[in-house]
Amino acid sequence: MPASHYIDATTLTVLTVNTHKGFTSFNRRFMLHELRDALRAAGPDIVFLQEVLGEHQGHAERHQSWPALSQYEFLADTLWTDYAYGRNAVYPAGHHGNAILSRYPIERYENHDVSVNGHERRGLLHCVLRPPSLRAPVHAICVHLGLLERHRGRQLARLCELVVDGVPADEPLLIAGDFNDWRLRADRVMRDCGTREVFTSRLGRPARTFPARWPLLRLDRIYVRSVRDWQPVPLASRVWSRLSDHVPICAEIAL
Q: Where would one find coiled-coil regions in this protein (predicted)?
């Protein structure tokens, strides 16, 4: 839903998507330009991105349409004036991580390394946003958890520590991203640190998001705390199913 359709001045639309580094499933096609068009058409106020490339020299040489900017800057374009990037995985050709794009000023941000024992690199990108209509800041945490359940358990515990110790209880909190939680364990853990999942609370279960063509697994989530209300927002699945290996999820959050 475009930002101009606010319920009131303190309602935000948020969207989260694992961009798969700008490629479709199995890296068949480079789709970053189409992904940017779809994001602009959806018009969320805050975008949570996972697996977004900061740099990749090999892809830049192979693809004529590769942007000169980082992927998160290219996606932000002129619509999201502020953005933050948390570099997680670094390799000889470049690096990737999480990013948050925002219509509102990002006052500060920090990337928390939650990698386990030198395995796949994972992080929690915590941004503090300053919507001008609000007295209190809005906290946004972009999440991408590991593929192994024992790693996810430790990473969820770290996320809860960040929520409890790093975010004042009376300030709005939005947490979104790829939790890789196909066994549906995260909701219980996240309830223990005071958050609610948008789709679970309204529809009984998290949204199906993977694989994009025929979504079966419920991997992606949006959690909230200290907000007035929330509502899932449906997206045009036929548009999004060919842009990544995950379909995005979207919600309206009344602060």
A: none
How long a stretch of residues is the chain? 255
Tokens (6 digits) for 55: 């740099």
Q: Cα-Cα-Cα-Cα dihedral of 14, 196, 218, 157, to 10°?
A: 110
Helix (H) or strand (E) holding 72: helix 71-76
The tokens of 222 are what?
Answer: 């949006």
pLDDT tens digits, one per residue of 55-87: 777 676 777 787 888 999 999 988 999 999 999
Residue 154 has pLDDT above 60, yes or no: yes
What distance, in Å, lies between the first and last C-alpha atoms of the chain? 17
Query: Which pLDDT band holds residue 236 (cuts at 50, 70, 90)?
Result: confident
Q: How far is CA 150 from the centre of its chain?
A: 22
List the domains of the chain with CATH numbers: 3-254 (3.60.10.10)
Tokens of 66: 């590769």
**Given this model, what pLDDT does residue 198 score?**
98
DSSP designation for 212? S
Burial environment of residue 139 by CB neighbours within 10 A (0 to 12, 13 to 18, 19 or more): buried
The pTM assigned to this predicted structure is 0.93
